[in-house]
Amino acid sequence: SKLYKTTQCREQGKYMSTLNYNQQHNMLLLLSSSNNSNNNNYNNNYNSGNMGNSNNNSRGGGGSKKRKKRHPRTLTEINEGYIGSSCCVRCTQKHRYCIFKEDNTKQCIGCMQEGISCQLLGNSWKHSSKKSTLGKRASCVCCAGRKKKCIYDDKEDKYNYNTSCFHCTRNNKVCWPGVSFHGMRQNTSKLFSGVDTTFVMDNNLEELVACVTFMAAANFKPTVDHPMACAPITSTQRPARARNNYGLVQHQFSHGDKLYYKMSSYGSGCGAASVGTTYNTNYLRPITEDMQSLQRQVHSKLKQHAYLVPFLKTFNHLQFSINGNKGYHTSTCGMIQTGMHCDVTYSFSKDEGIHCSPSMNSQEVNTIVAIITIGHPRVITFERVIWREGPTDVVVEKKYFILSHGSLFILHPLDERPALRDKNDNTTLTYWKHGGVRMMCNNQTCDNRCGPMCTAANKNICSFSLGLRCCTHNRIVDVETWVDPLSDNDRHKFNLSELTRSQKDWNIKASSMLLEYSESGEDSTFEDWLLCATQQVCADYYYNKD
User: Fold this and answer.
1) What is the rounded CA–CA span in Å between residue 78 and residue 176?
2) Which residues contact 222 (CB under 8 A, 6 or more apart)?
3) Which residues are registered as beta bridge partners of 194?
4) Which is nearest to 288 in space by CA: 466, 474, 478?
5) Computed over its alpha carbons, how large is the radius of gyration of the chain?
6) Which SS3 state, helix, strand or coil, does residue 291 take?
7) How do residues 81-129 score in pLDDT, each as one tens digit?
8) Alpha helices in 94-189 (DSSP H)
9) Within a 13 Å sphere around the CA of 107, how many CA atoms are in the beta-carbon half?
10) Enclosing H/E stretch for 43
11) Inter-residue contact 347 to 360 (CB < 8 Å)
12) In sequence order, what DSSP letters do the residues of 3-33 get, joined into one string?
């Protein structure tokens, strides 16, 4: 430490000799404040027992764990923890420098003068040029470890990740193409996903989005969910978000006196166990004309960006979600609406290496998910996690996005792909998980744990979301009930496996739970809250609009 400080002072002395008196005085003040800050950080780390093997703790007694800092729920907290580019999208596209206001709002003065919303480049999926070629493949993991370039079998399509390089093919190895991050300007997190905060308004989609949202809310059907290691519960009473699914009708046919639809389905892979919706309440309804119109318009707007086109497929599924306390809970902003997860999961085996199983993933691999938010803003967490021959829980870094009213959030498939993301490290693969979704707290003075003031401020806040995606799985659905065929005879006719004894038992349990839910009047609790919350959304965001 002494040697380092001596060397540091010698180098500073050489530099100071080249400055005039005023410059030296200002530099000494800057160095003094910096050293004081470093000393304070050192002392804080030492006292809290964070250095070396020390078990010292400011509270004393046996090294009790320090209370973890909560996830951010206010704009100030998110801005303080921001990681990424210091430029906004507008200034980057115009090749200008950003000048921000000094009030921690991350609002660029140029954007403020033009009356537009300022979006930091590191938070947006937009880049400096619509013709950018971000997302091309790089050297595979094997060749990157050898510090050699890859020669792929498919030399034309630079976005084709389902190929092998010459070296891996010759040596009979499983090839895992890497991801190129070249062109990500000052974005240290190497994230393709992001938010466009004014997408709906900029593209004149407000009326269409409102029609789809409020129609889906008015026709919402509660389900009975039985997540892993959890007791069954009605979806409208869960702390997590409640959701309904809508799929594109691929084919319709009659069998006996019943009409059936074959529709695109999401959540019928590994997500079926994590959500755990019972078969007799797993509703799948056909997409309406307004929903199809919204999907087409969002798809056409995204196609204007060249770096998104290779990962865009026609949307055939829409998931409508309700986020809030639903009238049953008090700590609205403290509840996790969605847990940490990946929409597309990767597996590992010695024979296949890293691979993506089609049966485990109902969403088409390497396709974009677009999520529109209506109502109260939410905070979504991204965690970069280490991959060691399979997913782990070792978190490298975290990042937060605000999903505000009228925004379009894009989940890019390359973020969930295990890849080399650290400079000068050709061995450690990491990938991004997302979730930990919380409602933003209306109490701006809240900076520790939410209390009674937060409960009162967040009573009727509600946030709706529309998730658009392309799915490869299909389900056969009875038009009368909007669920799969349940009887053994009907399932035999469509070559579907019979339901297990436990699945049949859960169906019986779900029916009795929904009956009790209706007869006890608990359904009216949710419906009254939904009505108040919807009126609040209309008052806050659609005032004086038809």
Assistant:
1) 35
2) 234, 235, 236, 242, 281, 514, 517, 523, 526
3) 410
4) 466
5) 26
6) helix
7) 676 677 788 787 777 778 877 766 677 888 888 877 788 877 888 876 7
8) 109-114, 141-145, 166-170
9) 14
10) helix 21-47
11) yes
12) HHHHHHHHHHHHHHTTS-HHHHHHHHHHHHH
Residues 6+ apart with CB under 8 A from 255: 490, 493
Q: Which of the two residues, 203 and 276, has the higher pLDDT score?
A: 203
SS3 content of the chain, % helix, strand, coil (to 5): 30, 20, 45
pLDDT at 351: 84
* Structure confidence at residue 447 (pLDDT): 65
CB 232 within 8 A of CB 278: yes
Tokens of 222: 């509660």
pTM: 0.83
Q: Which residues pair with 467 in a beta bridge?
A: 319, 371
b/e for 371-400, b at 16 or more Cβ within 10 A?
Answer: bbbbbbbbbbbbbbbebeeebeeeeeeebb
Q: How far apart are the first and last CA of the chain?
A: 69
Q: Looking at residue 230, what is its pLDDT?
A: 79
Q: Which residues of 251-283 are buried (b: 16+ CB within 10 A; e: fewer)?
A: eeeeeeeeebbbbbbbbbbbbbeebbbbbbbbb
**For residue 413, what is the DSSP state?**
G
**CA–CA dist 405, 199 (Å, integer):** 10
Distance of CA 389 to the CA centre of its chain: 23
Asked whether the beta carbons of 417 and 431 are under 8 A apart, the reply is yes
E strand segments, 99-180: 137-138, 178-179
Residue identified by tokens 């091309």 is: 136
β-pair partners for 385 = 395, 431
DSSP characters over 323-343 = ES-TTT-S-TTTS-SB-SB-S
- If you search the block for the tokens 């008196």, which residue do you land on? 21
CB atoms within 10 A of CB 187: 19
- Among the listed residues 443, 433, 444, the one whose alpha carbon sits nearest the alpha carbon of residue 383: 433
